[in-house]
């Protein structure tokens, strides 16, 4: 087990190193000038070439790329992650301030996806081709097809025009005011959760359809067990493995989707910070946030792998 | 201009008539001073903005405006992101009256004198003014501030330097008297407008010295303004509190000002205002603005802004160097349709080469009724355009022009419409290339385009500012690389002409040159949509020219 963990950790680290290199290089070769965001249209137009060069030097963007990369790695090692090169704010502080909101959205959306997807999947599997199954399948296809940011905008507009409601404007942490915090995160979590729930429903349905025709399920039924027990004790645990794997993969979609959905809801999370940083060409913020998302993705995948052993005792790590 | 309130019981608010009476009393000195023929008389002796005894005090004003600033140095900025959030903490030497947004009144300078030859501006500064850190305000602070603006140190960018290009010396005569000496005289309206520009906030000499003039990463530097910094959450909110030691006793009225950073023209800003999470919203999208206008208990106003939306034509690339081709394209644009195309995205006003709402330009009504290219009936303009194309040898049209488009909703909508207009009327075929804003400026500066669509702003409304920047030879925003020696000579004369009437005549002549030899294709001029809940009193921007000079909030109060 220890060997397995070490190997996965090394794989994870090499993946992250690769991601950091790609992000770093891409951000520096992409066209676009951060000085436009910094000085505005008018200010940028009036910048003399010497001023531009001086400011780029000040920002550390004139240094050779290896020097810039090593500086970033040093900032990561020190825990500060560097500073936004415009305002000078620490990126670590930004993550500490906004990260909890995005984390809540991610976790809540996974919870919602299971709460919605699993019962629908079970219902569909045990009453295949009936009315509930057809309705569930239609809905799941619908939620798979609808982009999260569009659904988010509809929800925002509906809340506004029907209930004259708008979510809070600034970050309020769970421990500061749980009710206000819930208003901030519930919208994006619901939208992301519905999308994932559709995947979970389809996957759990197909897995259960396979499992319920197995001999041990038939035996359980023949023993006279109640249907609920047959499902919960015998069928479901054996059908869950692919669903858990899917959830891990979907976490990546949640991270990616949260960028657009946070923007649609106007929620001040990390996804929104990433969008603004991209627009501003705040390279330091962008590279750190992308790397953070990669760290989370790698971590979730390792956690999913480890959870297999809990779900299926036959699995052993070597 | 358009403003309207749905609150019939509104008391204490300033309607247009009341405003005119008050402005007449308070601003009389300034107005008279500006129009006196003897320029050495002091202007605006007693026109300082005075507190309204009827105004209520206290409360928190929640204001939504623009995204967060990317740095904190107002002097180096060119966006309302800085002005909107930071201006309430600072004062200017002189300012625009917040009641009309136009009349120039005293601020930190209690009064001023202009030498008869127009080459010396002497400002008498207020005594007893203190910065937020307790330091005394003196002429040395004004000198340090303006030295930075006029002669920025290395690594510091001052977009307003051209406004003060005539300033040769800034001399402190005593701790409360400072003199600006000019190499050559400039029109009074131009110079005073430059001093009253909202960007030129007065900062402590010590602060500037400590940071070598660069305040880009200094978040909280002391000002003398009506509000002082409390806290800031990046990209969320900037919170300020009333400055209890403000020199203008009785101001500001509200105890706390919360400035929320929200993208302009965004549904997010609109919905925050409409649901009451904000008291006042600036730069609203037209849909939210119209909704606010219809909502009982809310007021909506629109006003002009110093931004032109335009298409530039790369004069270095044939056939766009041909004046006939440029003029033909200018005539082929149906500007009424173009304004209509974006009516749900951003509010616009048809105009030519000079701000259509400026006293020196051809009045907009005349432009639309008489001038080719601006009329609703496009037939005469299109006929003329086709004739010009034939004369230029392009009767069959032009193919494969690269049309550089900034990635923003208005530009993308316009680009498609203009592409269709040019194809249908003149058989000019363009290929759209949509890029991010920063890339647009890189491509434009490098000349990697035939046509380009974007927007540019000027620091002040006076034509001398943008005649140099937008149309001047090697002007920083002359993206078309356009030159016209006749125009450049005339622009230089306009810059130096001190008589307003003669200047106006010359500006009209300049307009004629620009119409015949277009440096750009002006599409429209941006308008600003504001709306607020009626509990916000004392603030109505209907008559303001632009937003940069009037962000202070010392005049606003809350009725409940």
Description:
The complex is a heterodimer of chains A (318) and B (560). With 318 residues, chain A is mainly α. Chain A is 79% helix and 0% strand. Chain A is built from twelve helices and no strands. The longest helix of chain A has 39 residues, at 227-265. Chain B is α+β, with helices and mostly antiparallel strands and 560 residues long. Chain B is 30% helix and 22% strand. Chain B contains 17 helices and 20 strands. In chain B, strands 1, 2, 9, 10, 11, 12, 13, 14, 15, 16, 17 and 18 form a twelve-stranded mixed sheet that branches. Chain B has a four-stranded antiparallel sheet with strand order 5-6-8-7, covered by helices on one side. In chain B, strands 3-4 form a two-stranded antiparallel ribbon. In chain B, a hairpin with a 5-residue loop joins strand 5 and strand 6. In chain B, helix 7 packs parallel to helix 8 (286-294) and helix 9 packs antiparallel against helix 12. Chain B is globular. Residues 1-44 of chain B have low confidence and may be disordered.
Topology:
The complex is a heterodimer of chains A (318) and B (560).
Chain A: H1 2-29, H2 34-45, H3 49-58, H4 65-78, H5 91-126, H6 131-145, H7 148-163, H8 178-211, H9 215-222, H10 227-265, H11 270-280, H12 283-311
Chain B: E1 2-5, H1 16-26, H2 28-35, E2 60-64, H3 80-86, E3 94-96, E4 104-106, E5 109-114, E6 120-125, H4 139-150, E7 167-174, E8 177-182, H5 188-195, H6 205-210, E9 227-233, E10 237-242, E11 256-260, H7 267-274, E12 280-282, H8 286-294, E13 298-313, H9 323-332, H10 335-341, E14 348-349, H11 364-370, H12 379-391, E15 398-406, H13 409-426, E16 428-435, H14 437-446, E17 451-457, H15 463-469, H16 485-496, H17 500-516, E18 520-533, E19 536-537, E20 557-558
Parallel strand pairs in B: 2-11, 2-12, 15-16, 15-17
Antiparallel strand pairs in B: 1-13, 3-4, 5-6, 6-8, 7-8, 9-10, 10-11, 12-18, 13-17, 13-18, 14-18, 19-20
């Amino acid at each position: 087990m220890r060997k397995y963990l070490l190997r996965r950790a090394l794989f994870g680290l090499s993946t992250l190193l690769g991601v950091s290199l790609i992000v770093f290089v891409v951000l520096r070769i992409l066209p676009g000038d951060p000085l436009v965001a910094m000085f505005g249209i008018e200010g940028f137009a009036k910048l003399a070439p010497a001023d531009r060069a001086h400011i780029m030097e000040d920002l550390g963007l004139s240094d050779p790329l290896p020097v810039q990369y090593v500086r970033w790695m040093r900032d990561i090692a020190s825990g500060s992650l560097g500073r936004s090169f415009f305002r000078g704010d620490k990126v670590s502080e930004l993550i500490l301030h906004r990260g909890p909101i995005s984390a809540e959205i991610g976790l809540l959306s996974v919870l919602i996806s299971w709460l919605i997807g699993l019962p629908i999947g079970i219902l569909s599997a045990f009453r295949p081709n009936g009315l509930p199954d057809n309705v569930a399948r239609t809905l799941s296809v619908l939620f798979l097809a609808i982009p999260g940011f569009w659904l988010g905008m509809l929800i925002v507009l509906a809340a506004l025009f029907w209930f004259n409601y708008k979510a809070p404007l600034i970050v309020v942490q769970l421990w500061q005011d749980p009710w206000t915090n819930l208003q901030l995160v519930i919208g994006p979590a619901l939208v992301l959760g519905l999308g994932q729930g559709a995947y979970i429903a389809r996957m759990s349905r197909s897995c259960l359809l396979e499992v319920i025709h197995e001999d041990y399920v038939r035996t359980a039924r023949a023993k006279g067990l109640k249907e609920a027990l047959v499902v919960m004790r015998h069928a479901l645990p054996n059908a869950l493995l692919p669903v858990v794997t899917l959830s891990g993969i979907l976490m990546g979609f949640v991270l990616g989707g949260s960028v657009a959905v946070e923007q649609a809801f106007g929620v001040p999370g990390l996804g929104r910070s990433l969008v603004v940083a991209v627009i501003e060409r705040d390279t330091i913020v962008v590279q750190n946030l992308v790397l953070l998302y990669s760290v989370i993705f790698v971590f979730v995948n390792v956690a999913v792998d480890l959870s297999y052993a809990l779900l299926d005792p036959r699995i052993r790590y070597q | 201009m358009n403003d309207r309130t749905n609150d019939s019981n509104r008391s204490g608010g300033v309607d247009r008539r009341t405003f005119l009476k008050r402005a007449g009393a308070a601003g009389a000195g300034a107005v008279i001073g500006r129009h006196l023929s003897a320029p050495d008389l002091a202007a605006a002796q007693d026109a300082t903005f005075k507190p309204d005894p009827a105004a209520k005090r206290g409360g928190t004003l929640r204001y939504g405006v623009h995204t967060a600033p990317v740095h904190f140095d107002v002097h180096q900025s060119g966006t309302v992101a800085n002005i909107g959030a930071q201006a309430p903490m600072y004062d200017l030497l002189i300012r625009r009256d917040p009641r009309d947004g136009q009349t120039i009144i005293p601020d930190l300078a209690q009064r001023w004198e202009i030498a008869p030859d127009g080459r010396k501006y002497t400002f008498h500064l207020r005594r007893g003014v203190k910065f937020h850190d307790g330091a005394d305000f003196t002429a040395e602070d004004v000198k340090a501030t303006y030295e930075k603006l006029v002669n920025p140190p290395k690594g510091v960018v001052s977009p307003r330097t051209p406004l003060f290009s005539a300033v040769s010396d800034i001399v402190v005569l005593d701790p409360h008297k400072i003199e600006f000496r000019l190499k050559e005289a400039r029109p009074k309206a131009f110079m005073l407008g430059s001093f009253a520009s909202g960007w030129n906030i007065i900062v402590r000499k010590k602060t500037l010295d400590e940071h070598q003039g660069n305040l880009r990463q200094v978040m909280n530097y002391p000002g003398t303004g009506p509000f002082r910094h409390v806290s800031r959450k990046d990209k969320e909110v900037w919170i300020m509190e009333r400055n209890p030691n403000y020199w203008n006793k009785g101001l500001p009225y509200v105890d706390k000002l919360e400035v929320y950073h929200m993208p302009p023209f965004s549904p997010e800003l609109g919905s925050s205002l409409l649901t009451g999470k904000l008291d006042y919203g600036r730069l609203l999208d037209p849909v939210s603005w119209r909704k606010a206008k219809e909502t009982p208990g809310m007021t909506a106003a629109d006003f002009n802004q110093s931004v032109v939306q335009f298409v530039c034509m790369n004069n270095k690339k044939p056939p766009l160097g041909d004046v006939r081709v440029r003029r033909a394209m200018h005539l082929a644009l149906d500007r009424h349709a173009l304004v209509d195309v974006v009516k749900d995205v951003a509010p616009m006003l048809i105009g030519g080469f000079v701000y259509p709402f400026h006293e020196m330009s051809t009045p907009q009504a005349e432009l639309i009724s008489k001038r080719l290219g601006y009329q609703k009936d496009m037939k005469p303009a299109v006929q003329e355009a086709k004739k010009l194309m034939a004369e230029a040898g392009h009767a069959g049209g032009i193919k494969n022009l690269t049309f550089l488009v900034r990635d923003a909703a208005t530009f993308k909508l316009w680009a498609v419409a203009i592409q269709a207009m040019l194809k249908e009327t003149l058989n000019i075929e363009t290929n759209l290339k949509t890029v991010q804003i920063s890339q647009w400026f890189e491509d434009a500066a490098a000349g990697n385009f035939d046509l380009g669509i974007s927007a540019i702003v000027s620091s002040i409304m006076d034509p001398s500012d943008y005649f140099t920047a937008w149309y001047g030879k090697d002007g920083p925003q002359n993206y078309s690389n356009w030159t016209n020696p006749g125009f450049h000579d005339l622009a230089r004369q306009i810059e130096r002409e001190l008589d307003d009437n003669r200047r106006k005549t010359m500006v009209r002549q300049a307009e004629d040159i620009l119409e015949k030899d277009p440096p750009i294709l002006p599409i429209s001029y941006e308008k600003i949509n504001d709306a607020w809940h009626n509990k916000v009193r004392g603030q109505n921007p209907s008559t303001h020219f632009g937003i940069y000079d009037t962000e202070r909030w010392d005049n606003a109060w809350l009725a409940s």
